[in-house]
Model the fold of this input.
Amino acid sequence: MRVKSSLGCKAILLILAWSMVMLLSACSGSGADTASNNDAGSAKGPKTGDGSALIKFVAAEYSTATKPFLEQLVKDFEAENPDIKVELQVINWDTLESAYNTMISTNNPPDLLNTYSYAHFARDELLNDLGEIMSPELKEKFYPSFMEVGRLDGTQYALPFLASVRGLYYNKDILDEAGVTEVPKTWSELKAAAQKIKDHGKASGFGIDMTNNEGQAYLSYFFWGAGGGWQKDGEWTLNSPENVEALTFLKEMVDEGLSAPEPTVTSRDEQQRILGNGKLGMMITANFFSTVVPNEFPGLKWGVGPTPVKDGQPPSTLGVQDLLMSFQTKHTNKEAISKFLDFFYEDTRYEEFMVKEGFLPATQTVGDKMSAEDEVMKAHFEAIKVAKFYPVNDPAWPAVLDASKKMGQAVILGQMSPKEALDQLQEIALKNSK
Done:
């Protein structure tokens, strides 16, 4: 901005006077106070205008229960810690990524962010080391295998927020009426069961979500089910023969009318309701199905089996972790963040959150308790022990994730062959890995 040169004498005197006041104010403070108030990485960090520490927390909205729970949690935390203010934003998954990317690009990132990937932020040196922030007591609570997902080059950039494991959920009445006597465990059994349901004429056979919501999940189920995957030994292998075969199988299911209509439009959550309403026989989804869908459809008779794999392949399933990371901000207060983390992951409080949302806890203290009290939860934890996870610790993952949904949709819609789509996806992965 250009400043005009025709200032009056009064204006010049005011500026000189103000400059002297600022100089004297700066000199009067001790060196220790100055460092404490301006060092974003200090133990205590700067304060807000009213003397309180500030934590900006952006969280994903998992269900209608998320916001009320977190609002009450923040209220309770502030009551116990009146010198810390928590500014909470709960944002729907559909707009979460664009919202926090805008915050980051305008140099206003949150202190805590709950989302699905972190490595690209770590690569750009935007994140705090949570290993230095969280208390030793909290560090001991987490499942070690869950912690590995958020660790990159020895630094704990992200904490496990919660987890889920996938399986084949089905409407028992539909399968019984269609004459499906065994829950399909292989691709050939899945195709045969879906054909029987289709022939029965009352419901679609198998739900495929190739939308922007869960497209990458369905690719994962079938990539791994074919013996392929996203990576091998840390290298991208997206256009492997196994992955091409997997995507070809999904395309066949759609072309043969064995899937629910509009797989590029109808999301997982919508398909769960269709299954609950008796219009869909089977779909792959997460363990929160058992909490969400029966509540909406009380008369539903449902069951769950393993994720089907190609004939001859060993069992495989997808485990998903969402993460919690801490950005370096102008008001980072590590001591306040540490207190908030202890408060959120406190056993009773964290267990309540898991029960409300239907997810698997990331802390062993809560996981052991819930498993001992619930056989279904115990089975979920047994399944997640052998589950495979998205390569979220690769900085290229966000770009691959976004492109994989588009490529999957292009194949389902007949716009590209599976090989063409996966060749392009491999190029995108390699480009963004540089």
Notes: The longest strand covers residues 158-171.
